[in-house]
C-alpha cells in the first residue's frame, strides 16, 4: 500500500535553493536582504518544527511549536539564536542553519520511500502480467487447464507435509545408544505451493526433518530450508521459478523465457546468481551445518538449543565461492579437509575445490569436459579424487523434438577420471574408459598398490522422464535400463587397464559406510533395498566386501541372506529413505571393528500413515531394532540423511 505523501512546501520571496545561504550568512546580509526585512512564507505540516516564524516582521508575538519556542523579531534588530536567551532551540541544535540538513534528509527519505512504493507497484503489475503469460503457456501446452496434474510424486508416501515446531516427550521404545546422542537429519523435496504445469520429484522445496536424541529424550522438528527462491515465492504465494518437471518439449523454452522475463522486470531477484531449493543433502564442516543442492551455493542451518532449525543464509566462504556446490562433498576423517565439485555456469566444465579444516576455500581446478553432463557424486582416496564423465547429458535442443532436458546418451562414452587431491590443473587427471553406464552414488574408494578401487551403485542407464509421475508407469528404477546394483571398478595406473565386476544383483541405492573409513580400504557398506514397483526402499542390506560375491550373483536367498550380505526388513508396507551409519567410537582405534556402530533411518508405515525412527545394530543386523522413536507426524520419502554428534552441535559457529 502506498504511503500518504507529506504536504507540499512553498517559499516566497526567497527561493528554496537560496534559503541555506541566506540563513547561514551574516546579520547584515540577512537584515539588508529587503528594505522591509525578509518576508518568507512556508506551508508546512503542523507536526513539523518550523524555524521561519522567527523571521517574520510581526513584533511581540510568540510562535510556539511542539519542539521550539522563538520570539518574533522586527526588521530593525536581529536576535542571535545562540546568544539571545529569549530564543530556545531544540536540544543539540546551536544554530538555525544546522536544522536545514535535517529537513533535506527527511525530504530525501520521503522521496526514497515514494520511489520504493512506485517500484513495488510496478513490480506487482509486472508479476500479474507474467502470471497471465504463464497461464497461457500451460493452457496452450495442455489444451484445457493449467491446474497441477495428479502426480505419483505428490501423493501417498511422497505427499508433502507442513512445518512442525520442536515436539518433545516422544515415546521411546528401547534404549538410545550413547554414541547416538546428537541430531539425525533427513532432507528432501517438499513443495511449499501447488504448482502449475509439470512436477518432478527434484522440484520440491528443501525440507529438513530433525530428531535430536539424548539420554531418554527425543525432540522432533520440521523446517523448510529458507532459500532465496522459497522466500521470493512466499511473497507471491505461488511458484515463480522454472521447474524440472516443465523441461520437456517446447513448453520448456517458454518456461525458461518466462523466468528470464521475470528477472529482467524485477519480479525475481537472482543477485546471488542461483535459484536452488536446498533439498538434496547435508554436510557438517568447520562448525557449520550446510544444506546442499546442485544448482546453488550451500545454505547454512543453525540448530538452536531447543532443537529448532534456522536458516542463516548462503555460505560463500568469504565470497570465494562463485559457482554451485554439488550435493556430495567428501570429508577426510584424518585431515578434516572437505572436497567437492561444482558446475561451471557458462561452459560444460566441472570445478573441483578443496576446503581446509578451518574452512578456507582453496583455488579452483577447472575440469574440461566435451559436453555438459549431470554428475551427482564423486569419491576420494588418501591421495586422489575420482570424478565421473557419464552419458546423462543436458540436452536443451532435444526439447524441440519433445524430449526431456536431461537425456541419457548411450552413444557417449563413460569415463572415470583420477585426479591428485591437490592438483593445480586438469592436465594431471587420468581418464579410464568403462562400459556405458550411469553411477548415481559412489560407496567407497581406496588405493591398493598400482590400483584405485571404486565401489558404487551402477546401472546400465537412467531415465529421469517427468512423465513417470503423471502416467504412474511404475517401471523399475531406471526404467528400461534396469535397477542399480553394487559394482567394483579397479583402475590400474601402471598398465592403464580398468576392470569391473558386479558384487550383487540386489536392487540397491543410497549407500552409507563408517565415516572414519572415507578414502580408506572399506570392508562394510550398507545400502537401501529398492522395491522397484513402488520406487521405495523396503530394507537395508549389509555387504561384506572382503567376501567372494560369486555365490550371490544369481540369487540372494529370498532377499534375507547371502554369502556376502544380510538384509534387515522394515516390515510389510513400511519404507524408508536414506540410512546413516553412526560409529560406536570416535575414531579408527586398532581394537575398534569397522562395523561397530548403529544404523538410523526414518521409516514410514503406509498401513497407519505414521512414521518412526529406528536404530539398528550395524554389526549383528538383528531383526529387532535397538530403539524406536515414535514420531508425531508422517515423514514423506526424501533424499539424503546426516548425523551430527552432540559435541559438534555444541561447537556450532
Automatic annotation (TrEMBL):
Binds 1 Fe(2+) ion per subunit. This is carotenoid 9,10-dioxygenase. GO terms for biological process: carotene catabolic process. Its cofactor is Fe(2+). Pfam families: RPE65. Its EC number is 1.14.99.n4. Keywords: Dioxygenase, Iron, Metal-binding, Oxidoreductase. It catalyses: all-trans-zeaxanthin + 2 O2 = 4,9-dimethyldodeca-2,4,6,8,10-pentaenedial + 2 (3R)-hydroxy-beta-ionone. Belongs to the carotenoid oxygenase family. Signal peptide: none annotated. GO terms for cellular component: chloroplast stroma. It is an enzyme of class 1 (oxidoreductase). GO terms for molecular function: carotenoid dioxygenase activity; metal ion binding. Fe cation binds at residues 328, 376, 441, 640.
